Amino acid sequence: MTRRIILSLCMCGLLVMVSAIGAAPLEPLAAKEPVVNRVLTLDGESDFLRVPDSPSLRSLDKAMTIELWFRAASFYSDQGAINSLVRKNIAAGKENFLLRFRTLDGAPSIEIGAGPDIGTLQTYYEIKANRWYHLAGTYDGQTIAAYVNGTRIDHIDTTGRLFVDESDLYIGRGDPEFSHGEYFHGALDEIRLWNVARSPKEIRAAMDTALTGKEKGLVGYWNFDDGTARDLSGHGNNGQLNQIVESPRPKAEAPTQSATEAAPPLPPGTRERARDRIVHIEEGVHREVPDVPRLCDQLDLRKEKVSIGDCELYCEHEGKGTALVLLHGGPGSTHHGFHPHFSQAAEFAHVIYYDQRGCGLSDYEPGSGYSIDQAADDLDRLRETLGIERWVVLGHSYGGLLAQHYATKYPESLKGLALTCASTGLHGPSLPSRQRDFISAAERRKMAQIRRTAGLSTAQRIYNNFLNGDWKRQSYYRPTHEQIAQGALYGWIHDNNFNGIMSSSAQRVDLAGAFAGCPVPTLIIEAKWDMSWNTDKAGQLRENHPNAEFVMLEESGHSPFEDEPEKYFGALRDFMSDLPEVPTARIEAWKRHLAARAQSASEFISSLGWGRRSSEKIASKYDRAWLEQIGSGGTLLRIGFALYDTKRYDDALAAFQKMQETSGGDQSGQVMAIIWQGHMLDLLGKRAEAIERYQEAADMGIGGQYSHSQYGLAYAPSAYASKRTEAPFTRLENRDDS
Asked: What is the spatial distance between Cα 401 and Cα 408, in angstroms, rounded to a whole number?
């Protein structure tokens, strides 16, 4: 469940239209420097400008330039979601030409399209909300190019003749059947449409000044300064809006970024770190991944395939002593990422590497169906087959979630539990991932180029992305080319659709409160620069394991066993050398706690999804006593949604009020709870009380982007709440049938 919200409201009364087709065109106003500058504002929910088709708009058949100033208030946060600026023909797959943003990896990328037959340029520029940028896209019959603040940032070579039909032109809206209608949220000014490809010099020279309206090739020009949407090009593409407001004339508020960025030198002998923000861009795209050997083949390991009944798991052994089994991450990576680092653990333990079912060198046998429950069962069958009574289970990343889930199912099989940069299994509010914080605009543009390169295998894409900065998402130190090749060839191998299936299964695990009273010795190792999560994650995991030993490594990323091996393996050695025997009675007591927890409302709710049918199941068993039993804000949010879906607004209001109470100092959870209280009060006809709630949320000044994708709803919290003080919330239906 992601955290961002865009309303799909009824467009009645809010539809922004240009004069009707066939109406007499309005006389163009003289384009002169206005005394007052005005801009078009769009709410990201239902506002847009429709320009009826005309011969002038169909003249973009050989070349085009689309340019405008924009200041975005927010972007959709969902992967692949679109905010449209300009598009002719909004029917799916029928676009003539377009200029828009698409969210990739949490950030908006720029897309300039010249029609399906010619193609689309997808590129990246670091865009911040509430700043003005000038954006232009051109096509000259051979090249699509993108310009930001007058500087060309990217291009692709492609040929073909533009196909322009008799469809209408839309500004601020796209395909109504995709991505919440692809509405744009923010302000636009100086929108210009040309049937020629403007040169870089021409774009730069005119971007800061008003046009006369008589420039060669200009077919549409809207600057809104007279309070209307008149077309100042003289072609009669006019309209009327009420979203035009006074605003200072746009100017670039962010420094222009060059296509390449110089990397400052490091002191001799210094290893480059992600946080050094040094940029390396490779020429072209590498089709050959160096043929490096598996690290397994260079180590003194015993290898075997171990049958666990319905499939065989690939397994390796190294060292002697207490058994230590390693659970790799993903879902869908392999044991290879533990090599050669865990050879250090072989000095004090019997290290067991294995590939989970459906991954690496193990069998791709789905069994009863890939799931985290099956993965836990597989692990215990592996233990039994290897003849190990009890062992230490160490999970890394997603493997840490699997390790915790295994502990709750098979606590009697554990001698100890070790979690390294582990997924928490908690559903409460959390800050967004920092994975992209150290990746530059130039590196993102290069990775966008790699994405649109046809014919690349998974290994080739990984290799090229890492060469061009993608390693900074999780690694702390820059890997060598050989290490990148090893990871590309051997580190991410799994069955078709495995990652999606297992990720969905993992999301149903809720471990909140599961480890209170856990008697199993537990070691948690976290890293300050683990960018997979944010700074709040380590504390959440630690709080959920109140009896665990906790170690924070200061100079490590997502794989601290690689970054600070001496400290990491020192902590692991100390932990494993002093493991107390856990009395059977304590294990049995914890199992009783887990069994009682499995019957709890929290566990019941976490076993269900976020769709409509799941809401009906939750609502059918709802008891108001749940509100006193549950302390998780995420679970209370799910209860509130279930009651909202079933139109029990009074009960839903109580759930959101309890959610606010349990949020403590977490403003993220507080503001979401307050906004949804306002929604329920609106639906109950208590408008005055709803406004009080919205105003409280608006006054908190919370930014960012939250979403509830099942409702097609996304918002920047305080800005959204401020708008709701002016217009009440109207019911949205749950579009997820699960």
From this structure: 11
Are residues 439 and 475 in contact, defined by beta-carbon separation less than 8 angstroms?
Answer: no
In the three-class reduction of DSSP (H, G, I as helix; E, B as strand; rest coil), residue 51 is classed as strand
Question: Cα angle vertex 8, ends 97, 95, to 5°?
Answer: 10
Residue 297 contacts by C-beta under 8 Å, 6 or more apart in sequence?
none
Binning pLDDT at 50, 70 and 90, where does residue 161 land?
confident
Tell me the helix, strand and coil percentages in the chain, rounded to 5: 30, 20, 50
Give the residues across from 478 on adjacent strands. Answer: none
Cβ–Cβ under 8 Å, residues 112 and 120 = yes
Q: Is the dihedral of CA 350, 356, 362, 363 positive or negative?
A: positive
- E strand spans, 522-675: 522-527, 549-553
Tokens 């993992």, residue?
Answer: 506
* Rounded-to-integer distance, Cα 642 and Cα 734, Å: 10
Backbone angles phi, psi at 579, to 5 degrees: -85, 115
Q: Are residues 294 and 337 in contact, defined by beta-carbon separation less than 8 angstroms?
A: no
Structure tokens at 258: 């060059």
- Cβ atoms within 10 Å, residue 351: 24
CATH 1.25.40.10 residue ranges of the chain are 604-724
Q: What is the CATH number of domain 604-724?
A: 1.25.40.10
The CA radius of gyration of the chain, in Å to the nearest whole number, is 28
Amino acid symbol at 597: R
- Answer whether 48's CB lies under 8 Å from 191's CB: no
**Residue 527 and residue 560 in contact, taking contact as beta carbons nearer than 8 Å:** yes
Given a contact cutoff of 8 angstroms between Cβ atoms, the answer to whether 37 and 247 are in contact is: yes
H or E segment to which residue 450 belongs: helix 441-451
DSSP codes of every residue in 652-714: HHHHHHHHHHHTTT-HHHHHHHHHHHHHHHHHTT-HHHHHHHHHHHHHTT--S-EEEGGGTEE
Cβ atoms 252, 147 nearer than 8 A: no
Contact indicator for 260, 153 with CB cutoff of 8 Å? no
- What is the pLDDT, as a whole number, of residue 257? 46
Kindly report whether the peptide bond that precedes residue 565 is cis, defined as omega within 30 degrees of 0: no
Q: How many residues does the chain have?
A: 738
Q: Is the pLDDT of residue 260 over 70?
A: no
The first and second tokens of residue 295, run together, are 């690290």
The predicted model gives 444-472 an average pLDDT of: 93
Residue with tokens 């070349």: 63
- Pinpoint the residues of the chain covered by CATH 2.60.120.200: 38-246
Strand, helix or coil at 335?
helix
Which amino acid is present at 98?
L
Query: Which string of b and e fits 670-693 if b means at least 16 CB within 10 Å?
Result: bbbbbbbbbbbbbbeebeebbbeb
Q: What is the DSSP track for 357-381? A: TTBTTS----TT---HHHHHHHHHH
Euclidean distance between CA atoms 630 and 603, whole angstroms:
10
Contacts 24+ apart (CB under 8 A), 589-594: 589/517, 589/519, 590/411, 590/517, 590/518, 590/519, 590/520, 591/411, 591/412, 593/516, 593/517, 594/408, 594/411, 594/514
Helix (H, G, I), strand (E, B) or coil at 13: coil
23-57 per-position pLDDT tens digit = 334 444 445 554 689 999 998 888 899 999 999 99
Please return the burial class of 579, using the count of CB atoms within 10 Å of its CB with bins 0-12, 13-18 and 19+. Answer: middle
Q: Which CATH number fits domain 38-246: 3.40.630.10, 3.40.50.12780, 2.60.120.200, 3.40.50.80?
A: 2.60.120.200
Query: Residue 723 and residue 16: Cα distance in Å, rounded?
Result: 18
Dump pLDDT digits (tens) for 631-646: 888 889 999 999 999 9
Q: Tell how far CA 472 is from the center of its chain.
A: 16
- What CA–CA distance (Å, rounded) separates 357 from 363? 6
